[in-house]
Amino acid sequence: MGYSHKGLTYLNPILQVVRKIGVALHIVSPNRLRVLIYHDIPSEEEGAFRKQMHSLKKHWNIITPSEFEQMITGGSQINGDNLLITFDDGFSSNRIVAENVLNPLGIKAIFFVISDFVKIKDRAESHKFIADHIIPGSKVLDIPKSWGNMQLKDLSALIKQGHTIGWHTKLHKRLSECSSKNELEDELILSSENLSHQLGIEINHFAYTFGDLESFSEAAHLVAKRKFRFIYSGLRGNNIQNISPLAIRRDAAAYQLPNNEYRVFNNRLLDSFLGGFADFRYKLSKKILDSWCRES
Q1: What is the dihedral of CA 139, 174, 119, 154, to 10 degrees?
Q2: Is 12 contained in some domain?
Q3: Alpha-carbon distance 235 to 238, whole Å?
Q4: What's the number of CA atoms in the CB half-sphere (13 Å) around residue 106?
Q5: Is residue 14 part of a domain?
Q6: Structural domain containing residue 251
Q7: Helices 267-274 and 3-24, interaxial angle, to 10°?
Q8: Domain holding 111: CATH number?
């Protein structure tokens, strides 16, 4: 963790008092609708992830994807603290933690997957895909040996367990670098329709790759909203006060070590992020993203 993360961790008790005062003075909304992003959960981190889910369940209403859909579209009121759990990239550990941790707790999540990653059946090939596309610029030797990909059978199992499959592009491309409308349609629409057919479901949720505004583009957004009802960024924020379902904010819940392995944030740091104390850093990016959702 960096110095800013350590600072938020130590300041969290004070920041939470400040938030309570803001709520009491009607300066801060008492209601929250936030979304967490996880990626790989290595076996040695499963215990920490389980403890974090238990802690979140004590303080938050962890909602299902269907409940989130109703809240973000105005179909039901947003009252209190509501939280949706999501996973990006489709790592093989996702099914494991779904069955070992989420299911026993009654938590339903969205798993955003990459179709060409799902197709891979060989571990070495999956590592090459990760090095080439998910962590571009890295070498195969830089990829943790435990990493692998979920395949169709894993996605089908998650669906049967009540989870939701979302879209995360065909090749995990940085969409702002796609040079044509045809390339964007292949990444976003044609490949997602093929996976929908294979799984026998509609895919209504899409999450941008990499998450930052520089990895998106208005052209990509125009293509994506033709297909998907719900579009997620990696920009931190509270999804209330007329946030469009095409510009959903999400909070990263883990960080990466130099060897690329993920570690979940400690609960105090995560509490700070969910309290909104880093949201201001994304104000301009969110304003631009919101502008793409306006009807022309």
Answers
A1: 100
A2: no
A3: 10
A4: 4
A5: no
A6: 30-291
A7: 50
A8: 3.20.20.370
